[in-house]
Specification:
Blueprint: E1 2-7, H1 11-22, E2 30-35, H2 42-49, E3 55-59, H3 66-76, E4 81-84, E5 90-91, H4 95-105, E6 109-119, E7 133-137, H5 139-149, E8 160-162, H6 163-169, H7 180-191, E9 193-206, H8 212-216, H9 220-238, H10 245-269, H11 278-288, H12 298-306, H13 311-339
Parallel strand pairs: 1-2, 1-4, 2-3, 6-9
Antiparallel strand pairs: 4-8, 5-9, 6-8, 7-9
């Protein structure tokens, strides 16, 4: 199994990440670290790590971005299973052997993932390692669920992909800044089945202010645009592998459009109209979904825009709507924790 770790100025995290891969029991692991022209102490950290003959280090002389950096590492990887481990994340004990066992039992599976435990600060001392079983989906079924929801259910580092499938796809998508991972999972599901390890934490995912998601993608509108582009590229590249790509694409666009309307509704409910471009969300929704008026959140948004009642009534209505959505979001989160979907 090959663990590919692209890194840029993450020298302070890199040793923990690499060590967590080398410490995996039950599988033979090679680690490929690709330094994307870091300006911190990453080169020195890499030199120390390369003393282990299981670690290969490659350094770019110019910064090329995380997708190109991963692909450079993937080109050097010899394993039949591939993990893209972010340099600020840490694998939990036996996470790779759990994934390998599922792959061995189901040759049709091309992607295995599990639960990522999100943390900030020091790496947690303990992980939940209790395994309840496996969930296996036919690729088209898993893909259809992703199109219905239009959101990724995988962080990245908890995912393991068959190298042969990843080569058929062509590696990581370089035309996307933030949603290349989502396009990868969709592409795998177009070619193979998908498995989920139910129960245990597969990776510790670090939350910190210098992460790519925090510095480049922590805005709902940017995220919506990236996911739209990911779907556009996926259907352009992989649509020929699908039985009915047209309806799936329309579902994805409708889901993204309704999410845009939801963000606009939240601006009213949270009294954030001054900092939210509601019209931009409306335009985004109308652009990708001709039947925007039929979406679930279209009339609720219209109601908020038309509301002329007493201020106290508006406040009560918006507060009740916000409370309902919080409960609904928590329910969806618990469902994802249990099922991976």
């Amino acid at each position: 199994m090959s663990v590919v770790i692209p890194t840029y100025n993450y020298g302070r995290f890199l040793t923990e990440s690499v060590t967590s891969a080398l410490a995996q029991d039950g599988v033979r692991v090679e680690v490929v670290v690709v330094d994307d022209c870091s300006t911190d102490d990453t080169p020195e950290v890499c030199a120390r790590l390369a003393a282990d003959d299981r670690v290969t280090v490659l350094r770019h002389e110019q910064n090329k971005g995380h997708a190109v950096t991963f692909n450079a590492g993937f080109a050097l990887a010899a394993g039949d299973l591939i993990v893209r481990l972010d340099a600020d994340d840490v694998l939990t004990p036996r996470s790779l052997s759990r994934a390998a066992a599922l792959f061995d039992a189901y040759p049709s599976v091309g992607l295995v993932y599990g639960h990522p435990y999100h943390f900030a600060g020091p790496v947690p001392v303990r992980a939940n390692l209790r395994e309840r079983g496996w969930s296996i989906w036919a690729g088209p079924d898993w893909l259809a669920d992703r199109c219905r929801k239009a959101v990724s259910c995988i962080t990245t580092s908890e995912a393991v992909v068959r190298a042969s499938v990843m080569r058929e796809i062509g590696g990581w998508e370089t035309r996307l800044k933030l949603a290349g991972d989502m396009k990868m999972w969709l592409s795998v599901a177009a070619l193979a089945d998908v498995g989920h390890i139910d129960g245990p934490d597969q990776v510790f995912h670090r939350e910190h202010p210098d992460s790519v998601s925090a510095t480049q993608g922590d805005h709902p509108y940017i995220d919506l645009q990236e996911r739209r582009k990911a779907f556009d590229l996926f259907f352009a590249d992989m649509g020929g592998h699908l039985a009915h790509p047209g309806p799936l694409y329309q579902q994805a666009m409708a889901a993204l459009a309704d999410e845009a309307l939801l963000h606009a509704c939240r601006a009213y409910d949270s009294n954030r109209l001054a900092e939210t471009n509601v019209q931009a969300y409306l335009d985004f929704a109308a652009d990708i979904c001709p039947a925007v008026q039929d979406l679930p959140h279209y009339q609720p948004l219209q109601r908020r825009q038309r509301m002329t009642g007493a201020a106290a009534y508006q406040t009560l209505f918006f507060a009740a709507s916000l409370a309902y959505r919080r409960v609904h979001s928590k329910s969806q989160y618990r469902h994802w924790q249990r099922t991976g979907l």
